[in-house]
Amino acid sequence: MRQEKLSGLELMQGAMEGRIPPAPISGIVPMKIIEVSSGYIKFFARADKRHINPLGGVHGGFAATVLDSVTGCAVHTMLEAGVGYGTIDLSIKMLKAIPLDKELTAEGKVIHLSKKIGVSEGTLKDADENLYACATATCLIYR
Questions:
Q1: Collapsing DSSP states into helix, strand and coil, what is residue 138?
Q2: Which one-letter DSSP state was computed for residue 96?
Q3: What's the pLDDT tens digit per position in 6-24?
Q4: What residues contact residue 90 under an 8 Å CB cut-off, 6+ apart?
Q5: 92: closest CA among 67, 128, 118?
Q6: Which residues are within 8 A (CB) of 5 and not within 5 positions of it... i.e. 6 or more apart?
Q7: Model-level pTM?
Q8: What pLDDT, in 10s, does the model give residues 104-131?
Q9: DSSP 57-72
C-alpha cells in the first residue's frame, strides 16, 4: 500500500516492523522505533562519534533531533491518512550530558490534539531511568 494512503499510526507501525523504510534522518541520528500506539511512540537512540562537538561532548543537536522526532511522531500517530504536520515550537531542557555510544530511550506522547494543533511531550532516558533531556512540542496540522 502507498504510504500516503496510510494513517499516521499505520505508517509508524510499518516503519517499526520494517515494512516501510526508516526516515533518512535515522541514518544520521540513529533512531529506531520500538513501540507505538495512538498518541504514543518509543525509540531507541544512540549518539556516536559523528555527534561530537568541538569540546568533545555530544552536541545538543543530537537530543534536539531525537526529541523533535519523537514528539512529532507521537502527534503523527493520531492523524488520518493524507494529513501532515510540522513542528512550530520545540522547547528542550538539557539536564545531563548525552553519553556517547550508550543506548537511550526516547518516549513521546500527545497531551493535546485539535483540528489544527498537536501538543506533545518527550523524554530521553537511559536504561536506569536517568533523564538526560525533555521537551514539549507544538505541531501545526496540515489537513
A1: strand
A2: S
A3: 999 999 999 999 999 989 9
A4: 64, 67, 68, 71, 135, 136, 137, 138
A5: 67
A6: 81, 82
A7: 0.95
A8: 999 999 999 999 999 999 999 999 999 9
A9: SBPHHHHHHHHHHHHH
Distance CA 102, CA 39 (A): 27
| Amino acid (one-letter) located at 137 | A
Q: Which CATH class for the 3-142 domain?
A: alpha beta
**pLDDT (average), residues 28-34:** 97
Integer Cα distance of 26 and 32 in angstroms: 7
CA-wise closest residue to 72 among 5, 4, 136? 136
Length of the chain: 143
pLDDT given at position 26: 94
Q: Hey, what's the cell of 125?
A: 532516558
Beta pairing partners, 140: 86, 117
Taking Cα atoms as reference points, which of 96, 140, 92 lies closest to residue 119? 140
Question: Element (H or E) spanning 76, and its range?
Answer: helix 60-76
Separation CA 2–CA 82 (nearest Å): 11
